[in-house]
Specification:
The chain is of the alpha/beta class and 198 residues long. Helices cover 37% and strands 25% of the residues. This is Class I SAM-dependent methyltransferase.
Length: 198
């Protein structure tokens, strides 16, 4: 049997993120996770927040690993992954009142990040929340040397990748009726940005 995919980073940050999800998602809603990766966050958050329905998504190549985590958990409030490519333009097909995504903005090109924001705006109802976790620059500056090194590594692999500026994310999102509510400092020089559709 194939081993489940595993991310140590997902284990390290899950409790910190969970505390914020508890605050901002107290009521029963469906959460669309963009880029579920290994599936660890989906399984953990759905178990800790049983009032939420968690919809995983990713490129098809990652579906089998996510499905392994879900099947082993036997959770009844987390759904098997759907295929989601942010530039496909099928956002109207997704039904959710909140969006969660971790460590995705820096591995996409800026154009694809903009596509993601446009799609989230088109899908989220007014008052819906979007949670974006990962490393971000503040005022155009790296928040740590490790983030600067990570950014250089990302761009060496693909020049279109890179750590995004919070201000650029915020300004672009606001054009699509999404405003930044909170910027939470997280472990390992990461941040949790919490947005709301208005």
């Amino acid at each position: 049997m194939q081993l489940k995919p595993y991310s140590q980073a997902a284990e390290n940050n899950k409790n910190y993120i969970l505390e914020q999800l508890k605050v901002y998602l107290p009521d029963p809603v469906t959460v669309l996770e963009i880029g579920s990766g290994t599936g660890q966050h989906a399984v953990y958050f759905s178990a800790q927040l049983p009032h939420l329905q968690w919809q995983t998504s990713d490129l098809e190549c990652n579906h089998s690993g996510i499905a392994q985590w879900i099947e082993e958990s036997r959770a009844n409030n987390v759904a098997h992954p759907i295929n989601l490519n942010v530039q496909d333009g099928h956002w109207h097909e997704f039904k959710a009142e909140a969006v969660y995504s971790a460590n995705t903005a820096h591995i996409m090109s800026w154009d694809r990040v903009q596509d993601m924001i446009k799609g989230i705006s088109a899908m989220l109802p007014r008052g819906g929340h979007w949670f974006q976790y990962g490393p971000f620059n503040v005022a155009g500056q790296y928040t740590s040397q490790s983030n600067a090194d990570f950014d250089a590594w990302l761009k060496e692999d693909d020049a279109r990748r890179g750590i995004r500026d919070i201000e650029a994310m915020t300004e672009f999102a606001y054009q699509y009726r999404i405003k930044l509510l909170a910027d939470m400092s997280m472990p390992a020089n990461n941040r949790l940005l919490i947005f709301k559709r208005f």
